[in-house]
Amino acid sequence: MTNPALDQISLTKLKGIGPALEKKFHQLGIYNVQDLLFHLPLRYEDRTRLRQIGKIRVSEQVQLQGQIVSSNIQFGRRRTLHCVVRDDTGMVSLRFFHFSATQKNSLAEGNLIRFYGEVRRGRTGMEIYHPEYKILSDFDSVPIEDSLTAIYPATEGLQQGRLRNIINQALALMEKSPNVQDHLPPALVQKMELEELTDAIRLLHKPPTDAPLRWITAGINPGQKRLAFEELLAHRLCMRRVRNDSKQQKAPQLTADDKLLSRFLKGLPFTLTNAQQLAYQEISKDLGGVCPMLRLLQGDVGSGKTVVAALTALHAISSGHQVAIMAPTEILGEQHLFNFEQWFVPLGIKVGWLSGKTKGAARAQQLHELVSGQCQLLIGTHALFQDEVVYKKLGLIIIDEQHRFGVHQRLALRDKASAGAINPHQLVMTATPIPRTLAMSAYADLDSSVINELPPGRTPVNTAIISSDRRSEVIDRIKKACCEGNQAYWVCTLIEESETLQCEAAEATALKLSKQLPQIEVGLIHGRMKPKQKLEVMTRFKESKMQLLVATTVIEVGVDVPNASLMVIENPERLGLAQLHQLRGRIGRGNIQSHCILLYQTPLSDAGKRRLAVMRGSTDGFYIAEKDLELRGPGQVLGTQQAGAMTFRVADITRDAPLLDAVKEASELILQSHDDIVDPLIRRWLRQSEHYANV
Ligand code: ADP
Ligand code: MG
Questions:
Q1: What residue's CA is closest to ligand 1, atom 16?
Q2: Is 598 within a domain?
Q3: Atom of ligand 1 nearest to the CA of 309
């Protein structure tokens, strides 16, 4: 008897998966047992050791065990479950901000518990928020892990422990009957010296305890190479297909009304840089063509992409089409709304706004204006492409800060936006500083324009690296700058599982700073605020009515206040260089000397020091990206997804750069002589959107 292939076995065949849980898996794009095998770890944790509570230090990841000596619910600003655990050497607090009744019962006083999490300094000493934990009947009842523990991409309501258990079942099935089909031609596998497929899967989910450390630190687990190659290949094939396909599609030919464009340009307080003009010329040529433009506009932060987007939009609007501009966050969307209204309303153009939070009458009105064609430019978030949103004559889509959207979304968007036989043009804009050659590979479906110069009159930001012990000096400096009429940002960058915690940290900081700085007005902005509140805060800051703006990393992209000349970034060591570069790009936009203070937490690792030194030494996004690649220190384990990087599951576009030429070559070979494996490969790796395989 032959066993069914694993992609034919439904999830509910596994222990512990009922219809409700199955739905959660669908959210992760997992539909069958084989999909589980391709749900690969983001990183690993070492739980092969138990630590003593008395010896833990802040920001370490630790595994501990002990007895719960108290457990109660605290009602502060929010309800928290607070447990204290003791071993022979000390005590530590556990805090849960979300918990079920069952959890509360299991975390009762007297119970024995083993847990894993990150140590932080709390009100009552050392604390761990939301540890992953097990209740033990006695301390030896459950053996300590003997291989590295995989941490998977998860979703709300599906905890790591459970996810791991279910993936382990899938792995067991794979061992019983290795029915995972290897699509790659054997000659290719041999030539590339790739690991066998099931071996590769095993090596990634369960790296052996004795795996050479360099596998992990340098990201060279051979299993990873095999799967990264396959994943990159699948993406490349998909992009090739999209591109060939779009060459067959029809787009509206757009001719610009030059008079309107020059009226717009005359109204600007500056003239375009050569690079901006060149980019628009390239775009303009595409818009006049018969097939849809698919163009990437790359330019470092502050290079002036928005104005180029405005010209592009005007081009389309003046030839009688509607334009949609999509931003990754509400704040950035609102910022665009502010700019485009100022630019376009005087030209008699109707600008609209739509986000997920636009509800009721306002929403109905907006939808009506779109379908009737009154609204010529619509700005917003993902909401622009919900099913009920119908455009009368959409000719162009502009996507800002592309790195927040994966290839998947780009494709899904195109599908949604196409109205029958006519497809709109697309311009995607990114400041992601990925090295040029890599950008070409990552965006192989797109043509590319680069804005390679900054507008004149910018003064490069001066960056200082300062320890948090000198926080009060930094506060004095803010006081001085603000009293002299400058403005400043204070960025809180706690990395938390929960956005809520991050927002609370920012709230607390804002409160503290406003007490310490009574002379100046301190504002706060974070992702959890209502759009109206956010707009109010941003407007006050823009109009210089507020001098210091405390923010979470929501200001990372797009926010533009030229008078802001000082930025303090707390815990910069926790962010990727690309993200730091984006943040810092918010200042240095005017003609005054700007300063960025990287306020790090001591002690700072050597790798951390080197990374921050790169920030001090350069303001060039491309250079910083290359350095980031060189300096990825230990702890940056397999598949780590830096904020701002592409969203691959195993592959990492920077780390796996050496594979890209081979990927390109292999994809040509496959398109020519193995066309039958294109669909299965795309489906395996880009399954979130089955339809890509069918484009
Ligand atoms: P980004 O490319 O990061 O999106 P923006 O479009 O937000 O950059 O532009 C940054 C700032 O530079 C804005 O204040 C904008 O008005 C200004 N700017 C854009 N183009 C020019 C130019 N040619 N000369 C002077 N300032 C410019
Ligand atoms: Mg921008």
A1: 304
A2: yes
A3: 6
